[in-house]
Design brief:
This protein is 81% helix and 0% strand. By secondary structure, it is mostly helical. It has one domain. Helix 1 crosses helix 10. The longest helix is centred in the middle third of the chain and has 48 residues, at 112-159. The radius of gyration is 25 Å and the shape is globular. The relative contact order is 0.13.
Length: 335
């Protein structure tokens, strides 16, 4: 029992260490990327290639002069922290108090609380609807592209070219993964309602740590060609490490009381966690006992996908193709 407890503590500590120390490797990766760019610029070129290079020099100089990783991380900080988070702080900490003070001066007396209650509610709803919600959606879309750029740049430099799947495999993998992550997030929220005091919150926090680790490592594992079930099995087999890896981000995102602010904190710090996951060397040996954390959501996801595929095959005209035609289609897809 004591040996198992020691292994858990050691795994959690190793994951926590890799998550924190890996963030300091941004500068090293950027220097390596810049060195590659400089090397390519002095390689011998043909006359045609030289002409093309001169033509595109002015367009590429700005892009090549800025380190990709730090540039993308800075963009994430400016969008999510400089624009999004700062606008919330200014509205709630400066604009609303000033308007409340003006309302008290204008109306005064005992009616000021009632009047400000309606005005403050209307202003907050308007601000959230016309600014916070659109900017939140926009930032999530933009962050997806920036996170992918950071992950691809770090992977290309430290691990080589990724294994690029076919379009159909990419769509199927992404769809299944998003569905599974959404269901696992719901599972983590539901366990907070366990009737045992303190246990529900602890298990829910454990789910968030593992989910954040899955978010971060999925970029690397996808580039390595790992399928979804292999990624989940890897996490379940060495869960103490991934619990410790996701623990710093889970703690920092749990500190704000607002979900919007928590999302800003996540978007600012997550690029660094992606790099930590790319540079980490997780344990290869399975833990004493694996935790089948994803078994319920995998079963639900498989059932949903099986039901949707079955329903589509019943209504799609392609389901009425002959066996010979199906074989030719399959051979064409493999080629």
């Amino acid at each position: 029992m004591s040996n198992t407890l020691n292994n858990i503590v050691a795994g959690v500590a190793r994951g926590f260490r890799d998550a924190v120390l890996g963030t300091f490797k941004v500068y090293k990766l950027d220097m390596a990327i810049q060195a590659d760019i400089a090397t390519k610029s002095v390689e011998p070129m043909t006359t045609l290639a030289r002409r093309r290079s001169e033509k595109m020099k002015h367009k590429k100089i700005e892009k090549d002069s800025e380190p990709l990783l730090r540039h993308r991380i800075l963009q994430c900080c400016l969008l999510n922290g400089g624009l999004f988070w700062t606008s919330i702080l200014i509205f709630n900490g400066l604009i609303l108090p000033c308007l409340q003070w003006l309302t008290e001066i204008i109306f005064g007396g005992s009616a000021d609380n009632a009047v400000w209650g309606w005005i403050g509610l209307a202003l907050s709803m308007t601000f959230n609807t016309l600014w916070i919600l659109p900017l939140f959606v926009l930032s999530k879309i933009v962050n997806c592209f920036w996170f992918q750029d950071i992950a691809d740049a770090a992977y290309n430099k430290s691990r080589g070219h990724p294994q690029i799947p076919s379009i159909s495999m990419f769509i199927a993998d992404m769809s299944f993964s998003l569905l599974l992550q959404g269901l696992f997030l719901i599972q983590g929220m539901l366990v907070n309602f366990l009737p045992i005091p303190g246990i529900g919150q602890l298990v829910g926090h454990f789910h968030m740590c593992v989910l954040y680790s899955l978010y971060a490592f999925e970029y690397k594992w996808f580039n390595m060609g790992w399928e979804v079930h292999k990624r989940l099995s890897h996490i379940e087999n060495i869960w103490p490490y991934f619990f410790g890896f996701g623990l710093p981000l889970a703690i920092l995102t749990a500190l704000p009381s607002s979900l919007i602010v928590s999302g800003c904190v996540f978007s600012i710090l997550f690029p660094l966690i992606i790099i930590s996951a790319n540079e980490a060397e997780e344990p290869t040996e399975s833990f004493d006992f694996p935790l089948k954390l994803f078994a319920p959501v995998v079963a639900i996801s498989n059932a949903i996908f099986h039901h949707s595929i079955t329903k589509r095959s019943m209504v799609s005209p392609s389901s009425r193709t002959t066996p010979v035609k199906r074989t030719r289609i399959a051979e064409h897809d493999r080629s």
